[in-house]
């Protein structure tokens, strides 16, 4: 289990848990906060540059790169150096390929990802040997993303099997350091869930430290080591992400959004927002209104940090 927001959104259909999303940084959102989900995720960078972190490891990604994110692995996507990035997310559950968890195939090829094994590398640069092996399969899945999945089940499965067959060679036993990191992340998981659910309220170090059974000083050190930012900055990032979503997808006033997202002082909210997004809330709303209308998962419910993207037949070209 991992630190971060547990994304419970259903990706694809219950009887065919597979979907392809299109993402843009910063056009859809500037950043996607730390989160995890039960699906295996493959991210393919179409163009641009951005930072993707997996299990607290940051990777600067460029066009053609692939990032592999096993189930329950914490990850986020961020803008870097004011650059933009367009990418595709392919998400699927192992049950799509093997429903019987007691089968030899499941235990040999799927279970290790959530057990005591880890990938030797989450990031596969464009010129790497493994990238060259799996990129053609990923590109085929992306090329068919607009078609109804009910007409291409075998094609989809065949490419996913091919990808997993190749990357199986990257699995290695989890190191002592990896196990320690895994344990530390799991301890802080309740904290991130609490912040996701209670970001509208005042959140103190004392109360979240108690959730992780750590002293306040130990908690603050552990939190920053694992997330790369302080508790205050993380809470504010969650609040600002929700504010951005509300500005783009509701008619609520800026002052209403300020209060709803947990900011007690309007002037502070404006300063924090402008510092993060380079514009005021009102300016961002105006830009969003003038931009072409695109169906994205950003229109989902409160605090849904699912990938803001078009999907299935609504995918971007």
TrEMBL record:
Which species expresses this protein natively? Treponema porcinum
Q: Which UniProt keywords apply?
A: DNA-binding, Transcription, Transcription regulation
Domain HTH araC/xylS-type: from-to ranges: 189-287
What is this protein identified as?
Answer: AraC-type DNA-binding protein
Q: Name one Pfam family in it.
A: AraC_binding
Example of a GO MF term = sequence-specific DNA binding
The record's annotation in PROSITE patterns points to: HTH_ARAC_FAMILY_1, HTH_ARAC_FAMILY_2
Under Gene3D superfamilies, the record lists:
Homeodomain-like, Jelly Rolls
């Amino acid at each position: 289990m991992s630190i971060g927001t547990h994304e419970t959104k259903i990706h694809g259909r219950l009887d065919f848990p597979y979907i392809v999303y299109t993402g843009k940084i910063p056009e859809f959102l500037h950043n996607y906060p730390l989160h995890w989900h039960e699906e295996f995720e493959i991210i393919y960078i179409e163009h641009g540059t951005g930072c993707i972190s997996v299990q607290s490891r940051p990777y600067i990604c460029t066009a053609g790169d692939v990032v592999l994110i096993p189930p329950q692995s914490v990850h986020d996507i961020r803008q870097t150096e004011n650059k933009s990035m367009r990418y595709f997310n392919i998400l699927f559950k192992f049950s799509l390929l093997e429903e019987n968890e007691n089968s030899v195939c499941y235990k040999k090829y799927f279970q290790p990802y959530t057990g005591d094994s880890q990938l030797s590398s989450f990031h596969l640069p464009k010129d790497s040997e493994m990238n060259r092996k799996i990129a053609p399969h990923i590109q085929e899945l992306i090329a068919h993303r607009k078609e109804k999945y009910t007409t291409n089940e075998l094609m989809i499965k065949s490419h996913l099997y091919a990808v997993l067959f190749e990357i199986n060679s990257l699995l290695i036993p989890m190191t002592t350091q990896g196990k320690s990191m895994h344990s530390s992340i799991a301890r802080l998981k309740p904290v991130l869930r609490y912040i996701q659910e209670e970001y509208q309220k005042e959140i103190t170090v004392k109360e979240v430290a108690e959730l992780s059974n750590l002293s306040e000083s130990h908690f603050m050190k552990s939190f920053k080591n694992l997330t790369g930012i302080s508790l205050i900055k993380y809470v504010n990032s969650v609040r600002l992400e929700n504010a951005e979503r509300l500005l783009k997808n509701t008619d609520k006033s800026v002052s209403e959004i300020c209060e709803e997202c947990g900011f007690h002082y309007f002037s502070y909210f404006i300063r924090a927002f402008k510092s993060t997004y380079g514009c005021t809330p009102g300016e961002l709303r105006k830009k969003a209104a003038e931009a072409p209308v695109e169906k994205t998962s950003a229109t989902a419910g409160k605090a849904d940090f699912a990938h803001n993207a078009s999907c299935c037949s609504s995918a971007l070209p």
